[in-house]
Amino acid sequence: MTMDRTAPNTPKARYKALYAASILALAALLCVCFGMVYTLRLHPEGDHSRLMQLAYLCMVAGFFVLAAQGLLVYKKILTRMGMNAARADELAEQLERLTVMDALTQAYNRGKFEEVVTHELSNVRRYGLDLSGIMLDLDGFRAINQAHGYSAGDRLLANLAHYLNDKLRTNDFLFRWHGGKFIILCPHTDVDRAAIVAEKLRTLVGHKIFGGKIRVFLSLGVAQAGEEDTMESFLQRLQAGLAAAKNCGRNQVSVVRAQLLPF
Predict the structure, then answer these.
(1) Rounded CA gap, 163 and 208, in Å?
(2) Which of 240, 256, 246, 239 lies closest to 219 in space, CA to CA?
(3) pTM of the full predicted structure?
(4) Angle CA(80)–CA(86)–CA(88) in degrees, nearest 5?
(5) pLDDT tens digit sequence for 135-156
(6) Region 110-256: CATH code
(7) Could you say which DSSP state residue 101 is in?
(8) Mean per-residue pLDDT for 23-35?
(9) What is the pLDDT of residues 96-130, one digit of tens each?
């Protein structure tokens, strides 16, 4: 355990040791230079060629030590800049995640839904690709909050979102709409296959006990986007499908196959 704690500090300790050694080397060179100047002052006559050679050597050595110090400082600055850049990237990633994720459930939020559905509807119009959606709601969520408390309800929503995400395909998107409602977007999927996905989720959730004591059931509405759809008209059909599932007894899947006519 001690080695794990001290290992990250080894480069920093090495840097300090090298920098301290360079300071000592400069101090030693200054002392030598001072000694030579003092010698020349005491004995100005005579042959001082060796002394001058030593002075040149000290000067060259001093330049090398200063260059080493400069490299150490430059490396330290680059390291610090790299750390700051990495931290900035991490913070930017966290900020971007906060702007598109629902804080409670970690599913995508409504802002991200608008971005994704706009893009996918564009693919429907431009390339004729299939796009289906599933709007689901927890049956009796208000009663669950009243019976178990709002904190338990929040944990249930978070656990449900995680469970749904784990069961979805990699190209599907899960969004928190509001309350106990979620929307799933299924690109490259027609309404029949989306209905199969919805029924599978309804069955899986209905057989799972959340928090060791809460059993929940889902009502789900399924619809497929058409080339003339806007986000609003697509949402209207998803909501109509969910309302139909609720009105027909809940805990079931209702499929809207025809576009609703505008009022």
Answers:
(1) 10
(2) 246
(3) 0.67
(4) 100
(5) 999 999 999 999 999 999 999 9
(6) 3.30.70.270
(7) B
(8) 74
(9) 667 899 999 999 999 999 999 999 999 999 999 99
